[in-house]
Design goal:
By secondary structure, the protein is of the alpha/beta class. It has four helices and 13 strands. The mean pLDDT is about 95.
Length: about 210
């Protein structure tokens, strides 16, 4: 059995969505001084590889603690998407894939290679509203991506987020190392950290590849 870690590490200065407060990670106790080491961590929940709860964009919607864990775990289809010439992802990218109800779809654009650069944020791929609706119609349970957001960064109305969230399709952003998956379907997990009434959650996403 092979496990592929699909998360970015949390650290000072890491890539974040524009306008969000920077993550702060530091050691506040050392073994030589007090007998143990302690890390102090301050961050919003929408940083790094993370899951969005519907409450992130919809008033009165479910928070992360209200979502069953199995909605972030299951069989996933890897969908390759070329964004070299066009950043808006259209529905036709799914036409050659066998996507079943209850699947998780993972969009592999290769954009994680730009993590830590301005290009990752300023020139990120995104999904058209028609693409979001097409995925909803396929009855998937979650959508993951190796880029910043399903919406265009500068679009503050978040239309694709809302299409997914209104239809109980969960969003997993900023996946890493999808290029290390050499199978069309894998078992995938992105269990979010359990924070009471949170609108999102950090996750250690991974894929399991059978030998």
């Amino acid at each position: 059995m092979k496990i592929v870690d699909l998360s970015h590490p949390y650290k000072m200065g890491m890539t974040q969505f524009p306008g969000t407060p920077p993550i702060d990670v530091k050691q506040i106790a050392q073994i030589d001084e007090g007998g143990f080491r302690v890390t102090d961590f301050h961050s919003i929940v929408h940083v790094g590889t993370h899951c969005d709860a519907p409450a992130h964009c919809l008033k009165g919607a479910k928070t992360m603690d209200q979502i069953p864990l199995d909605e972030f775990i299951g069989h996933a289809v890897i969908v390759d998407v070329c964004v070299d010439n066009e950043k808006e992802i259209q529905p036709d990218v799914f036409k050659n894939y066998d996507i079943k109800p209850g699947d998780i779809v993972l969009l592999r654009t290769g954009y994680s290679k730009y993590w830590g650069t301005t290009k990752y944020v300023e020139d990120s791929p995104y999904l058209s509203e028609a693409t979001a609706q097409a995925l909803v119609d396929l009855k998937i349970k979650a959508i993951g991506m190796d880029f910043l957001s399903p919406d265009k960064v500068e679009d503050t109305t978040s239309p694709t987020h809302k299409i997914f969230m209104k239809n109980n399709v969960h969003i997993i952003e900023n996946l890493n190392r999808l290029n290390e998956i050499d199978k069309p379907r894998v078992f995938f997990a992105a269990a979010p950290v359990l924070i009471d009434k949170a609108d999102g959650g950090f996750t250690r996403a991974f894929a399991i590849l059978d030998n």
